[in-house]
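Render thiamine phosphate synthase in 3D.
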Amino acid sequence: MPIVGGSCLPRIRFRRRLVVVFVLTGQDACFGAGPTIPPAYVVVGFSALMSIGGRRGDYGGSVPNSFGTLISSLALYAGSLFITVAKQFVESALYHSKDLVIGNGPQGPFDHLFELKSPLYKTGSLQKFNPGDLFLYAVTDSGMNKKWGRSIKDAVKAAIEGGATIVQLREKDAETREFLEAAKACVEICKSSGVPLLINDRIDVALACNADGVHVGQSDMPAWEARELLGPGKIIGVSCKTLAQAEQAWKDGANYIGCGGVFPTRTKAANPTLGIEGLRTVCLASKLPVVAIGGINAGNAVSVMELGLPNLKGVAVVSALFDRECVATETRNLRSILENAHSRS
């Protein structure tokens, strides 16, 4: 593009270099379904206009001063907007990765940045995932609730009263509308108690009821796709049995993995048993916090907690809580057993 007025040449070249820096800095940021950098393109467009607009002798053009002033103001606004977006993206990456574990301690904040594929959300909406919430993980079951004549809402309320630290709604037999209404009620119960609520598998229900996150299995929606839909502020757990699955969960942006079945269970059909040693192997290799699941009850929970592994944060329980007459009593008893075992390990 021809430039009139040699005195303005260095200034325009500087702007072009600055735009290139903006573009290169934001090129991998994700917006919507693919990598885009709208604010940078806006800056490029305005910078091009600035090279032909403005005051004579300043930008080299003959366009009226008011137009040049307007373009300059818009360019400054666009640059400010992009800096804000870039700052939020970096903050999001730092927040998302800081609790992931490599080896025996937390990783450096940028180690996971290259794996972050989440869409950009306002950092103010992010909530901190606390791995300690996995300590007593209550997983509901629609069949058991029907057997004992309980609603999902009553089952969740009782589990929280007994000391559950996180709740997952796993209602495979419930109709969508019925499940959604129950989930909304459970969200309110959990929110008032400060207990996170996750939805098993159903990303749509989790979004509609504004749950704290989801738990997905190996045959469900991949964790990275769930992360793109839910954003970095939601909790995502993944069921894993192998070292490769645990590694993939970390790469996909999961917050934790559920490892099992540790013991034989009738809750999930055709579920191979890993045993205590299998759990130990996955925990030692996992970069994420782990919750043990599968056939865990008051009689064997101690053997799980006595492994004493730093990233084994708790146990997930289904039938030992919900296939009982009094959910609150069973939860309270198991909580006491876990706390005693944890204090000794």
